[in-house]
Design a protein that fits this description.
There is one protein chain. Helices cover about 0% and strands about 55% of the residues. It has 3 helices and 41 strands. The longest helix is centred in the C-terminal third of the chain and has 8 residues.
Length: about 775
Amino acid sequence: MSRHPLSVRSLLQLGVALGALSATPVLAQSAPSATQADRPAEDDGEILVTARRREESAIDVPIAITAFSGAQLDQSGAADITDIGNYTPNVTLEVSRGTSSTLTAFIRGVGQQDPVAGFEAGVGIYLDDVYLNRPQAAVLDIYDVERIEVLRGPQGTLYGRNTIGGAIKYVTKRLADVPSLTLRGSYGSYNQADGIASGSVPLWDGKVKLGGAIARLSRDGFGTNLTTGEENYNKDIWAGRGTLEIEPSSDAFFRVTGDYTHDRTNARGGHRLIPGLVSRIPVLANVFDTRGGLNSPRQDVVAWGITGFGEVHPADWLTFRSITSYRQDDSATPIDFDALPAVDVDVPAFYNNNQFSQEIQFLVETGGFNGLIGAYYLDAGSRTVFDVRLPGTVTALTFGNVRTDTVAVFGDFTYDLNDMFSVSAGGRYTWDNRRSQIQRNVFLGASPFFGGTTNPIVRQTDFRGTLNFKQFTPRVSVSFKPNANNTLYASYAEGFKGGGFDPRGVGTAAPDLNGNGRGGALGDQDDIFNFLSFDPEDVRTYEIGYKASLFDRRLNIAFSAFHSDYRNVQIPGSVGIVVGGIQTFAGITTNAGLAQIRGIEFEGNALLAKNFGTPGGRVNLAWTVGYLDAKYKSYIDSRGLQVANRRAVQNTPDWTASATLGYDVPINDGSLNLGATVSYRGDSQQFEIPTAMLDQPGFALFDANAVWTINKTFSVGLHGRNLFDKRYIVAGYNFLSQNADTGVFNRNAAGNFISTLGADGVLTAYYGNPRQVTLTAQVKF
């Protein structure tokens, strides 16, 4: 097991990848043919995007968008979707606490940290235009990818699910017109060993194509579980994708894609930030080491899906598309909250999700008019089951089973008034139905889901409930394009996310909300319903932007400024409580009244020098800057007090920035690209209330890369990430008593922390990756 201090994994070659952030725009293209649908064209490293479901140059799209091409991501050695987070303004993409494959995503302060059933994501993740309803298995590994687009702000008039904060589109490659095979291998620090093979073959004069890709991704741990002896923060993944494409004519295209991922990575153990309050076990020196003793169930994540895409052109001005998909993922994971050998706060868990979705689109292009009319249906199930094991063999079982049915119709229409002015208008109407079953029982020993055989000693929740929501959300924009190289726009958009029930809620803890003197402890179902449920949230965003390609395309910039009113913000949380003399925990979800989020985003790419050092040598500078002023304007806490000025929007740093200096020089039939990048994230809080030691101060990361493209067949690259080996926290748990206003930890008479769950106290952190260096080689046939 390698522990070399220079260890490394894949890095974004940001000299290339960040060049995509404001890649040199090209003129808007006409509607794509069937074989081109949702596929970008590239010209001198430029990327055409399909943010509005038609192929366009980014300069023409009145949306704040950042795009990375597959070629750029390949050159960078990017490992998974979180790698783009540090280089996209006002975006946070992290691996969720206690997992290796669950995604936490925030865009412009809008997101969702809690992965349990009942809570929807605020950021829509789309795999080949299929919305992923749950965050489990959503840390998508990057292989065989065409491009990734990040759209900021509400996107409900264009996408199947109403994405309130923004959308991330992961688009896989279309099959080549000729037989092809690509082999890519990487080896790096911590014995990282990755192998990816992809290829395709055309049949019957190219009317039928078969292709696929397989990936083996592995790495030793950054640390060790000192109790079980297992690697900690390791990687052990098999993944594959198969594709069948049929193109009977230029007016029809059909594609069936299946994907499968099996993740046997070890359970990710956290790092305690305080000694044990009772055991006095000290804090470990290596933040990637852990002592968590829980190792059952064995960590295992399986995710798979199948998607059918069809597109026909019944007329020159009309395109019809159908997107049909079924997806399923199952996760078994042991989460040791206290990160100690003995049982203190141990949580074995199962997550089981499935979804069927159907989307249809009619796209119209005639003269200066472009229109999209769509309908969407989602039938999704999400089950979360976990024990909370406390000292003395007391176990609280939480069982949450949520069914979601969604129907939506949406449309977006653009009309070019003349060569310079365009107007766009769209709307979406959403119907959501949510049915929840919640059980909460207390056992002596494990529950039956995790090997127990006894009956519960206390039943705290036995609940079934249904909620229905409907909402209309509009979007309008105006664009002014004085010439092909400049675009100004202003837009207004609304987004909506339905409410639900907190599956961790304790029904017997429900207060007497209706004033009849009973409450949840006496079985008042109305009080239990109101206590467990939470309301929908919505956001209204005003935005202005400017995109330009200047000085003969030597300088490309994109600027946006926005103001969002974010209402009924859903804030799930869990606290330690005592119910009926038994220490346990309860989910408490708050709808904060109103948050106001304002910000700016500035992306640029400048060609600083041509023929520098040698003929064809180019020096390029790419940068991104994001600023957020996010604050609560109204926030009524569980005490009924207004605490808006004492709460912060979680996972939302005020500043995000990056800069990449790159040098590209031709060498014989290929080229050499050298790049160095610094990225910065400002202060951020894990939760709305400050949490000392767990909140992450501002920090910078430094990356570098060198990629030699020998010719069209061979290339090699050396990638370095987090070269100064910075330690930074990305997630964590806290069950220590705090002042409800300041967040300062309360102390007992002896000056010690006070635990609210378990005996030893929980203040546990999870960290971003350390320094990694990776050597990559690729061959194309």
